[in-house]
Automatic annotation (TrEMBL), chains A, B:
Protein species of origin: Desulfoferula mesophila
Protein's name according to its UniProt entry: Molybdopterin molybdenumtransferase
Signal peptide positions on this chain: none
Functional pathway: Cofactor biosynthesis; molybdopterin biosynthesis
Entry's EC annotation: 2.10.1.1
MoaB/Mog domain ranges (all copies): 185-324
Stated family: Belongs to the MoeA family.
The organism's taxonomic lineage, starting at the top: Bacteria, Pseudomonadati, Thermodesulfobacteriota, Desulfarculia, Desulfarculales
Cofactor dependency: Mg(2+)
Described purpose of this protein according to its UniProt entry: Catalyzes the insertion of molybdate into adenylated molybdopterin with the concomitant release of AMP.
Catalytic activity as recorded in UniProt: adenylyl-molybdopterin + molybdate = Mo-molybdopterin + AMP + H(+)
Keyword terms, alphabetized: Magnesium, Metal-binding, Molybdenum, Molybdenum cofactor biosynthesis, Transferase
Biological-process GO terms, alphabetical: Mo-molybdopterin cofactor biosynthetic process
Keyword Metal-binding: yes
Length: 412, 412
C-alpha cells in the first residue's frame, strides 16, 4: 500500500514513541549494570547503614557528658572499652564513660555522639580529657541516614550511574532487573557508497553512516548490528530488511540519497505483513525525510543519507524511541548537557519547521558565545568543529544576535 | 622509608600527573575505536569528498547560464545526460546544457552548480525550464569541503566521539592507533567491610567502593580489575598490592578507615622496590588523605574510605592521572559538563583548602538554582539526590547566597 501521509511535527513523533511498551526485563549481574535501565524501582530492603556509625576517629560518648566542656574548662571521662571495627560492642556506656572508636565503628549502647580525637588529651590509660562539647548525633551517621527500610531510592527507568551501582552494592543487590537492550539492525544504501576498506573512485564515497550509527546506538544503550551495504534496489533492500527484522527490535536505514531509493523505501517497508506507516516526513531540519514503519516484529526507520543530518536526526528522532524501549521517557538528546549561550550572529529561519543548527562555542568573560556554523549541512566536519546544536523553534523567523539560547552539547 | 611530606594543593597533584608519559599505543579496529584516545593526529590522506557533489536533486548546470533567470523570466537548458550515482560522468556540459543529477551525484565537467528540481519544469525529454538563478558552487560540496589532503582533522589525544568515528570511516581508516587502556587494580580494605553477597551483622557494611570504583574507572577509559576485599593488616595489604602491581598500571586502595590501616598503608606502598612518595595528603575536601606512591611497575593510590568522598576524590585526583596515561591533559572532572547556577544558600568554608560540595539543582525562570546538600559527607545518597558539585576555592571563606557559581554535573 502507498499511503498519503502528512508531514508531522517533532512532538508528534515523540508522542508516538512515548506510547511504545518497554522491552521485557532481564537480570544482569551487578558488574554489568552500569548504564543499564532499572526495570523496577529500587526499594531499600533494610535500613542503611543499619546502626549508628562514627564518622571521625575519637571517643564514643554520651553527648550530655560533654556539655559545657571547652579549652579552658575540659571535662574528664573514663575509658571503659574500645570499639572493634566490624563488631557490635559488647559493652555499654554509663554516665561519665566513653570508648575509643575509629571512623566507621559502631557506637556502643548508651553513646550518642563522637568527640574527635583532636579535641581530646589522653591523661592515662583509663582517663581522657575532653576539650570540646558535642551535640547528640555529632560525628555519627544514624541507622537510617542513607536509607530507611522500604524507602524508594531509585525510580523505575533510572539509567544506572556509578553512584547508583554503589547504592545497589550497599543494599546487597547482586542481580539487577533491567530492561533488555534494544537490538538495532543498521543498513546503508546508495550506489555511490563503498565499504570503508575500499578506495573510492571519482563519484564514490565511503560508508560513514554504518559506523557512526553503530557508535550512537551503542551510546544510547542499544546493541548495534551492522548489516552492511545494500545496493539501491527494492529487492536487495527487502532482503536486508527481512534479515534485520529477524531478531532486531529496530532497523535503521540510511542513505538512499538517490531519488529512486527514496521512492521505493516506504513501499519496501510497508510490504511486510502487518506493516503500518506511522511517520513519513517530519517538519524539521535536518530530519525531514524521516520514515517510521511499525511491523509486528520490529520498527523500520529511514534516516537522511548525509552523515551530519543522519546523526542529528538520530539524536532527535531515533534516540527517543530507544529510550522508550528501555523504559525511559521518549525524550530527544538524552545524553546532551544543556548550557546557556549568547548568539553572536543572527540565525534566519523559515517558519513552519523546527531547525537544529550546529554551533561553535567559545568562552568570553565567563559566558559562552555561540557562532552558528552555517556551512553546508552535508559536511561531517561541522560535527567535528562544532560543540553543539541550537534549536530554532517552528513558528519563528529566526533568532537574533545577542539573544540567549540553550546549546545542546554534543556528548563526549 | 617513612617520609615527612607536606599536604599539597590540588593543582600540584595535577601538575605531577601532567608529567607522566602516556601509555604505549596499540592498534584497534574501527569498530572498537569509540571512546578511545587517538595516539597520533588524524591527517586527511586525501581530499574529502574528492570531487564536486550535488547536495540536492535537480540539474547540474553552468551557473552563468542561469543568471537572470526567475519566475517571470525563466531560462531554457538542453538536457544532455543523466549522472549515475557512484560513477564519474562520461560527458561534459557546454553552454546552455545541463544534466539530471541526484543528491550525492558527481558534477560533470563544465558544471559548477545544481538547480533544485523544485525550481525547474520539464518541457520535453531534452528541454528544461529554469525559474531561478544559482550562484557558482550552489547546491554542491566542493572536492575539499570536508577536508583537504594533509589537513589535520583530529588532534593527538582526541577521545573519539561518534562523529569522529564517522570521520575515520570517511577517510578509510580501518585500524586506529590509540593509547592502550590503563589497567586499574581495585582493592578495598576495612575489617568492617563484607562482600556484597553477605548479610552484614551489626557493625558491618557491604563493600561499595569496589563496585563504584570499577564503574568510574570503566567510564574514564580504564580497565578495572577488582581484586577483592583485603583484611586490615599490612601483610594482607602488601600481598594484594603485589598482585595488582603485577600487570596493573594503577592500583586504587580505598577504605582503611580505621586508624591502623591509614598508618601502615604508606609504609606498605613504600616497601616496594624503587617506590617513591609523590603525594601524602591534599588540601582539599573530600580527598584529604589521598596518597600517591610511584613504583617502577605502577602507581599506587590511596583514596578515602567513605564512598561519597571516594568517588569525588576519584574524579578530582585519579581521573586526571588516567586521562594523562591515555595521552590527554591531566584535567579533573573530564566527563562533567559545566553549567552556571545561582546559589540559594551561603556556603561557609574554612580557608586553606579547596572544597567540593554536592548540590541539588532546580530550574526557575530558565535559570538553574543550586542548593548545597550539607548532609553528612559519608552519605551515598548525597550523590544520588544531588546533580553535581560546586567548588569552593582554597583562599575563600565561602560562597554567598545569590552568587553565580559553576556547577560540575555528575555524568550520566
Amino acid at each position: 500500500m502507498k499511503a498519503f501521509f502528512q508531514v508531522q511535527d517533532v512532538d508528534a513523533v515523540h508522542a508516538l514513541a512515548q506510547e511504545l511498551p518497554p522491552l521485557p526485563a532481564e537480570e544482569v549481574p551487578l558488574e554489568q549494570a552500569l548504564g543499564r535501565v532499572l526495570a523496577r524501582p529500587l526499594t531499600a530492603p533494610a535500613d542503611l547503614p543499619g546502626f549508628t556509625r562514627a564518622t571521625m576517629d575519637g571517643y564514643a560518648v554520651r553527648a550530655r557528658d560533654t556539655f559545657g566542656a571547652g579549652e579552658t574548662a575540659p571535662g574528664f571521662l573514663d575509658i571503659v572499652g574500645e570499639v572493634r571495627m566490624g563488631r557490635a560492642p559488647d559493652f555499654s556506656l554509663g554516665p561519665g564513660q566513653c570508648a575509643r572508636i575509629g571512623t566507621g565503628g559502631m557506637l556502643p549502647a548508651g553513646a550518642d555522639a563522637v568527640v574527635m580525637v583532636e579535641h581530646t588529651r589522653l591523661l592515662d590509660e583509663t582517663t581522657v580529657e575532653v576539650a570540646a562539647s558535642v551535640a547528640p548525633g555529632g560525628n555519627t551517621l544514624g541507622p537510617t541516614d542513607d536509607a530507611a527500610q522500604g524507602q524508594e531510592l531509585l525510580p523505575l527507568g533510572q539509567r544506572l550511574r556509578p553512584q547508583d551501582v554503589g547504592l545497589l552494592a550497599a543494599l546487597g543487590q547482586e542481580k539487577i532487573m533491567v530492561s533488555r537492550r534494544p537490538k538495532v539492525g543498521i543498513i546503508s544504501t546508495g550506489d555511490e557508497v563503498v565499504p570503508v576498506g575500499s578506495s573510492p573512485t571519482p563519484g564514490q564515497v565511503r560508508d560513514v553512516n554504518t559506523h557512526s550509527l553503530a557508535a550512537v546506538v551503542a551510546r544510547a544503550g542499544g546493541e548495534p548490528l551492522p548489516l552492511g551495504l545494500v545496493p539501491d534496489n527494492a529487492g536487495a533492500l527487502r532482503e536486508a530488511t527481512a534479515r534485520s527484522l529477524d531478531g532486531c527490535d529496530l532497523t535503521l536505514l540510511s542513505g538512499g540519497s538517490s531519488v529512486g531509493v527514496r521512492d521505493f523505501t516506504s513501499e519496501v517497508f510497508l510490504s511486510f505483513p502487518g506493516a503500518e506507516l506511522l511517520v513519513h516526513g517530519v517538519a524539521v531540519s535536518p530530519g525531514k525525510p524521516f520514515l517510521w514503519v511499525r511491523t509486528p516484529s520490529g520498527h523500520l526507520l529511514g534516516l537522511p543519507g548525509q552523515v551530519a543530518s543522519c546523526l542529528v536526526a538520530f539524536y532527535l528522532l531515533v534516540e527517543p524511541i530507544l529510550e522508550r524501549l528501555q523504559g525511559r521517557p521518549a525524550l530527544p538528546f538524552a545524553r546532551f548537557a544543556r548550557v546557556p549561550a549568547v548568539l553572536v550572529r543572527n540565525i534566519p529561519s523559515a517558519p513552519g519547521r523546527e531547525e537544529y543548527l550546529r554551533v561553535a562555542l567559545r568562552q568570553e568573560n565567563g559566558h559562552w558565545l555561540a557562532s552558528p556554523l552555517f556551512g553546508k549541512s552535508g559536511l561531517l566536519t561541522t560535527l567535528i568543529q562544532g560543540q553543539g546544536l541550537v534549536r530554532v523553534p517552528k513558528d519563528c523567523e529566526g533568532l537574533d544576535a545577542s539573544e540567549e539560547v540553550e546549546v545542546l552539547l554534543f556528548p563526549n
